[in-house]
Every structure is written in C-alpha cells, then in structure tokens.
Protein: Gibberellin 2beta-dioxygenase
Organism: Salvia divinorum
Amino acid sequence: MQESSDPPFEATYKRLFEKVMAAPEVSGVAECELPMIDLNELKLGELSKRACKKKIARASQEWGFFQVINHGICREVLKKMREEQAKLFAKPFSDKAAYNFSAGSYRWGTPSATCLAQLSWSEAFHVSVSDLLASPNIHNNLCSIMGQYARMVSELSQKLVGILASELGQKSELLKEKCVESTCYLRLNRYPACPIFPEMFGIMPHTDSDFITVLHQDQIGGLQLVKDGSWFAVKPNPQALVINIGDLFQAWSNNVYKSVEHRVVANPVYERFSTAYFFCPSYDTVIASGVEPCVYRSFTFGEYRKQVQQDVKIFGHKIGLPRFLLRTH
Ligand SMILES: O=C(O)CCC(=O)C(=O)O
Ligand SMILES: [Fe+2]
C-alpha cells in the first residue's frame, strides 16, 4: 500500500477524540466580504490615489483586514507557487517530515493539545526567507518559485506598509530598512479535509506576530475573523490577496491599526491550501510608537518572539501584546 500523505492525525489524537463528542462550536458563522482595495487606483490621479490610501488605512483600523486586487503578483507566479505547494504536500508523510528547508520548518497538528478545541487540523512548512535564499536547493522548482514569490510579495508589503505608516503621519524609512526580504517568513499551509468532526479548527484562533501578513488562499474558504466581537467567515475571492495587520503594527501605531484574531475551520470534504507571507523586521528592531500616551512599552521583535514562544510552552497559547501593556486600562 502506498504511504499516505496525510499526517497521522487520527492515530495521534485518538485520546482527544474519545474524550469529547463534539468539536468546538463554530457553526452559524455569517459570511462577510472584506473591504476591497484596487491598487490600480494608486496609479491614477492624485485624488484617487489619496482616496485609495485612506481606504487602506480605514480598513486597517476598522477591520484589521482587507483584500487587494491588481496587486502586482502575476497570475502565473501564483499558479506555479500553488502547483509546487500541492506537489510538496502530496509527498508521503515521512518524506515531508524529513524535508528540511531548515530545522523544524515542517509542522502539523498541535503537540501540546489537551482537548479538541486546541487541535489544529493542518500541516505547514514555515520557512525563513533568509534560509530559503541561502538553500543549496534554491534552483529546484519549488525553492525557486518560493524565492520569486517572496520577492514579489515583499515589494507589495513594502508598498502597503509605506502607505500605512504615512497615513499615521510617520516616516516609513526605518520600517523599510528593518523589514527586508531576509527577515520575513513564508508559510505554506495545507488543511486536509476533516470528515470526522465537521468544524474542526484548521488553525486555532490567533493573531500574527508581524507587521502585516499577505495571504493567498484557494477557493475553498475557511478563514474566519473577529469583527465587532463576533466571528465572520471570509468569502474567498480568487483574484484577491488578503492582507491583515499583525501585532507589531498594532503596537507601532499605538493601537490605531488592529491586529485581529482569526482562525481557520477545516472543510469536511475538501482539502484547502493557503500561502502566508509574514512581513517581519530584524530581531533587534525596536517597536515603539513614539506617540504619547504610549499604550505599550517599547520592545524588540526578538524579545516579542521569545515571550510568545515562552508563553506557548508554559500556557499552551500565545498571550501576545497584553504582555507589553504599560498600564492596565
Ligand atoms: O490559511 C489561512 O487562511 C490563514 C493562515 C494563518 O492565519 C496563518 O498562517 O497565520
Ligand atoms: Fe494568521
């Protein structure tokens, strides 16, 4: 028999399945369409340009999420990236576990899960772009398209972050200098179909620990986010990339831009793919808003990462920005 490509979810988490009769309650979630930004408007006259920038800033304040079309990443690159990603995940499980972009880049499930609500029904390659570019495999099809994809998405991220910074009335040079291709991360996600429990988490609720995330998802759907205290399912748009604000931008903007909790719900019938690009600074970058009164104490990205890793180890989940509040509000 051919070895399965799926990680051994059922065998590994058997005890959790026996313990409970239901997966987390996520049904009845309404669908929403994210604010849509056409980046071609940035190439038009001064008025359209200004309106487009304002829309980006407003969505980042009110939703923490938006989608962009005419984003400059050509269809061929998106298609090729997805094909190579699908091929990689179709390899037998043992090959994937041994396939190393760098140590620990392949992940699946949730090692620390003690109940079903803590289990992420997904597998991923979480790759540092600097490791990718230095890889001796950079000339194989997969690594080469990942490198190409990372470069294009990095340019888009720089553009968006520049706009968001200038809409705050702040200079973006430092940010642009600190967030370069090699300090960013690329994550290839696969959510196998989950027929056992119809609404299992593909990824548990979380916020991203970066400035912004650029997400390319397929047409299956499953991404959900919190808006005004309720969960909403994001309607997939094959032409668009989804952008969300991460913790670092929330802190840097002194809570103006929102790093919003999101999660993925696995589909009972179809597998789903997504590719996430995390726009991050170097570890020594100091995150400080410079606006009084400061909500958070200043911290380096390295410090933030270390704290997140420590909290995950001790509490089983990330605490994130509340750790860095200057005073309790
Ligand atoms: O797959 C998705 O839609 C979201 C992925 C995500 O939130 C992440 O990788 O941080
Ligand atoms: Fe995320």
Notes: The longest strand covers residues 272-279. The CA atoms of residues 46 and 147 lie 34 Å apart. The pocket of 2-oxoglutaric acid (ligand 1) is lined by residues 187, 189, 203, 208, 215, 217, 223, 262, 264, 274, 276 (CB under 6 Å). DSSP finds ten helices and 15 strands in the chain.
